[in-house]
Fold this protein.
Amino acid sequence: MQEVSPTPACLTLLVNFGIVTGRTPSRVEIEALWDAIRLDVSGAIISVEHRYEFRGSAAEVCLDQVRIEVPDETALRDELSRVAPRVLEAARCWVAECVESLQGAMTLSERLARQAVVSDA
């Protein structure tokens, strides 16, 4: 195993992808996300995580999330107020496109639940 040295991020955005799509994003979708934000940042780390949270024996959370981290060296801190809203909006549009591209049959309740989450985000 290699030792990893984390790069400090000046911006971190978490997208709960699984709650709105019911699945893990594909590599093509992650590359589309990068294409959506690359005009605003010169570099980013995009991670797909299958996350588990435990709190005693009463609660458990399991979700598929996408983490977007913009390292300090790729975005100037004084530009952060300009970059952050644009990256957030790009991520929202990306998730909406992923939802629209879902294939296969969904029940009416699945479509309504996904639409409610995406519309309220």
